[in-house]
Amino acid sequence: MTNKEIENQEKGDASSTQNVCFTTKETENSYLPLKSEELPQVFHPWRRYLARFFDITIYNIFWSSFLAFAFNVPLTVRSNLENILDVFIAITIMLFLEPLLLHLFGTTPGKAIFGLKIETADGRLLSYSEGLERTWRVIGIGMGFNIPIYNLVRLWKSYSICNDNETQPWDESISYTIKDTKWYRSLFYIGANAVVLIVLVALVYSQQIPPNRGDLTIEEFVENYNYYVKFFDIDFGNEYLDKNGKWVENDQDGTMYIQIGHGEKPEYNFTLDKGYVSSISFEVEIKNNENLLSSYDTQMFLASLAFAGAQEEMKLFSKIPTRIAKQIGDKTFEDFKFKEAGITFSCDTEYSGYSNHSNTQSDFMFPSENATENYFSLNFLITK
């Protein structure tokens, strides 16, 4: 064999060896699982955060609606502790509902607005268990289980990771994609939040409507009355109105109540027509009272709203409660007469021996220093 033939044979062997190595490499790659760095990820921290914030708001609406309609819980007077509990429950709803949305659609309402989608490495939608595991890690690692202070630390850490184009711990084995970053998605987000705000306002306004509508029995009137006591967070100490419309005392729980001024609660009188309430009234007469005198605006307002709120004129965004409150509040310790929702409300007041309060609209009247005796009477009537 000549030198040239030997050289050609060596080149052919080398070329053959190179083809084998390339093929082997491709074959190996085709069977190896993709690493997280090779999977598409979304490095837009604010889009991701705003999407999740929107989703949690939706979950919170679900819970608030359940409280409002299932248990008639007033949403406007929730304490700070109750608000914190509400957020934890919303996150619990997220834990179980988000995996279902990811399994069915590969996205959530917030993610869909920004064109975000989650899939597995091989392009299929996550199973429910895979979604559950991911959401649990999001809540724990990303949100710090919403524990105050710690959650801020975890949110900042998550923001930093995303901002540095690094994969979040809960996204290491998934494909996270974004369709586009067009400007109109921001408008969609603003519009979606506006809709959510309208829903929340409607939810609060819906609670102005009492549980009983139409003609009322005494018991139904009382139920409406006590509903508004709770809705407006009014404190009557250890007393409440029972189903017969009489003031009774709660069992003592060790709480001490301090009464400011003369605040004897009026007894409501009911006139019935075929078993339904047609009018409600109470009378107050006080003689030679040495203490300051409290107004009866609250009792008049609650009784008026419990009756008027049952009428068909009381709609979702009705201003009836506001108008009734103004008519009564502007005439504290004074006569008034007005109509609302087909009902007439009137109050006749007479007093002597008390200081002039007409310029202050105070909720109290003080006995005059020079008066040897004083007198106060009030007659309140609601007539359908």
Automatic annotation (TrEMBL):
Keywords attached to this entry: Membrane, Transmembrane, Transmembrane helix
Q: Where is the RDD domain?
A: 44-147
Q: Give the way it sits in the membrane.
A: Multi-pass membrane protein
InterPro entries with a match to the protein in the record: RDD (IPR010432)
* Intracellular or extracellular location(s): Membrane
Specify whether Nucleus is a keyword of the entry: no
Q: Where are the transmembrane segments?
A: 56-75, 87-105, 187-205
Q: What is this protein called?
A: RDD domain-containing protein
**Source organism (scientific name):** Sedimentibacter acidaminivorans
